[in-house]
Write a structure and sequence with these properties.
159 residues, Beta-Lactamase
Length: 159
Amino acid sequence: MRDDDFIISKTDLKGRITYCNRIFIEYSGFDEHELLGAQHNIVRHPDMPRGVFKFLWDTLEAKKECFAYVKNMSKDGSFYWVMANVTPNLTAQGAVEGYFSVRRKPGRGAVSALSDVYKLMLDEERRAGPRDACAASIALLTSVLNQKGVSYEKFILSI
């Protein structure tokens, strides 16, 4: 990504894309009509641990914003990393009506640090099997964070 690029999208409660900016269209390689109405995981790269998305959705369900580094896959199979900030979009009454995400170019150090952690999480997911993959992955992430003596948010925002 270029330093001044921001990928922006909105989704409904089910994660279907309701808005995407031209930068998202450019990096994803999809046409706008292919993205609108599609599940946001249309750009999910197989190198991304399921546990990261479980953590993200759990955070959003608590009506909190979530920061995460994500490796996305373009339509042609290439990939790009982003630093994502995802927030619930709330009605005036406080009900979640969808989600808003802004992604930007991550630092090189962050990609290196997270690539190693994500590989460990994926290995743990494979070892645990489909039924227990997310729990095992999150447990491994929690262990890594405890060893570093930081919370998830502090770790993500510090790299």
